[in-house]
Amino acid sequence: MKRVYVNEKWCLGCHLCEYYCAFASTNEKDMARALKDIRIHPRIRIEEKDGISFAVSCRHCDEPLCVKGCITGALTRKDGIITIDRNRCIGCYTCILSCPFGAVSPSEDGAIQKCELCIKTAGGTPKCVEGCPNGAIVFEERGE
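RE: above sequence
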């Protein structure tokens, strides 16, 4: 299964992936207009430690602890992709506590959010990958 991978050696820490991620969920054509004067809530985020920048995103684990910990069944894994049914999420945040990678976060409306590989909006290559100017984020299949 294809997944998002990040090469921290190439990451510039520019945060463009965050903006492309936030833009992907707006259903707008123009990024500047869509994101103007709003605080973005991306499903991928850049962190920095000891001078190294890296992106934190859902890894769509084979044995996802977030799905196992979800008490309402709002998180499901189908075809290798972990998705959220926002109507079922009650905001208990058990999944946030369960994720060993810190890839699940609260959304602005109280439910949770995480990377869903842009399957609901882009239907192809995730927008964070398309927008990375240095090619630090890739969407590919790798051997175990």
